[in-house]
Write a structure and sequence with these properties.
This protein is of the alpha+beta class and 180 residues long. It has 3 domains: 12-74, no CATH class; 91-133; 135-173. Helix content is 49%, strand content 13%. The chain has 4 helices and 4 strands. It has helices spanning 67-90, 101-129, 135-161, 164-171, and strands at residues 24-25, 29-34, 37-46, 56-60. A 4-stranded antiparallel beta sheet has the order 1-2-3-4. Strand 1 (24-25) and strand 2 (29-34) form a beta hairpin. Helix 3 runs antiparallel to helix 4 (164-171). The two termini are 44 Å apart. Residues 1-25 have low confidence and may be disordered.
Length: 180
């Protein structure tokens, strides 16, 4: 495995695999070994203020990087983490458990098309307004627009036919599990 920037925010006690391992420290970085990581690591200590008693550690394995370069790479990671969160939580990528391989493959495809659609909307909004909306806002807006469309169609059909109960029965889910 090549050099990598590992997830940040490690407690100090996790940085050293064994007490006998030598640690070298500079003003803002510590090198040593981390359990389950074969390469030597460098940890950058980040404090909010001089007396901060719970500093955060950013750990990486490419020791050729300066602390500034490693943090710059870590900043690129955040948008990826946000997208992963929306893939799993907002779009249901984590909801494929106990399915066949074919079903999982199709679920991944639908989910990826969904996030591509949202990212396209995000890019369009940026071009039009100069502001980059959050994916959560786009998901909420899409759901709201969809709900509005469904309600409007049901209302128009009920007005046209005059049979409100019949229209409702046709459009409302009949299974209890379908109600969220």
């Amino acid at each position: 495995m090549g050099p990598q920037v590992l997830s940040g925010f490690f407690p100090a006690r996790q940085l050293v695999k064994k007490p006998r391992v030598a640690i070298s420290t500079t003003e803002n970085a510590t090198t040593g070994h981390l359990e389950n990581v074969s390469d030597q690591v460098c940890a950058i200590v980040s404090r909010r203020h001089k007396g901060d008693h719970s500093p955060k550690f950013f750990v990486y394995t490419d020791l050729r990087l300066s602390a500034q370069e490693a943090l710059r790479l870590y900043q690129r990671r955040w948008p990826v983490e946000v997208d992963n969160f929306y893939l799993k939580e907002g779009l249901g990528l984590a909801d494929f458990r106990l399915q066949s391989f074919e079903a999982i493959d199709k679920w991944f495809a639908v989910t990826l098309v969904s996030i591509n659609y949202l990212q396209y909307q995000q890019a369009q909004s940026y071009v039009e307004t100069g502001k980059l909306p959050h994916l959560a806002d786009l998901i909420r807006q899409h759901r709201w627009t969809h709900l509005e469309t469904v309600i409007r169609r049901i209302a128009e059909e009920a007005l046209q036919t005059g049979k409100v109960e019949e229209v409702l029965q046709r459009h409302l889910p009949s299974a209890a599990w379908a109600v969220v």
